[in-house]
Amino acid sequence: MFRPIHYFGCFLLFVASILLLVTTISAPVINSISVMRVDLGRNASSLTFGTFGYCVLNSEQGGDWCTGREIGYDVSNIMVNAERTGFSEASGNTADGLTRVMVLHPVACALTFISFLIACAAGIIGSLIGVIVAFVAWVITLVVMATDFAAFGIVKNDVNEDGSGSVAYYGSAMWCLLAAFVLQFFGMVIVFFTCCTSRREKRRNQAAVEPKNDYGVSSRRSRWGRWRRN
Q: 3-201: what fold?
């Protein structure tokens, strides 16, 4: 009865893992996918900031240019060189430091996919283990999402208020991360609910088929009881 609902919860975990994968392969892996994008006011170029670096689209030299993949990068320094955006030392250091936490994107993606496999292929106990893995992934996603909004929120506000004409806004990878966070939660709750309900229904069915004697007590005796009578 609850199997279709259970598999729907598993499906939500699978979709969440795909969305987290999209965030993970943002710039510089795929140029156009970004956690935050800045359209520069002085020319037609754009900056796309991703999990492991950034790209310059329609650069002055022609074509797109991307950095190598690295854990953490200096967002504030990049914007200073591109648009002379002014940052306080505290806000710049905070934004740069928080980008190092983005390494948790692939971790959350992998754990969510593992929870999907466990919950989908295992029984009740295995599904509960999958729920635990999904909960860990959900907490990691919460941490990295809060970090991303904090780090790039600092940059976005400074860019949009410096009067340079550049416009900064959150990219598709950020919204994929937010959607994955929501789907993780509902998928985890649905799988947990179906596990508990299936376990209760299984116990009820076992009690219904168990033979009773005239006094309403189970007629099944333990081996220890039979040994004592003999």
A: Butyryl-CoA Dehydrogenase, subunit A; domain 3 (1.20.140)
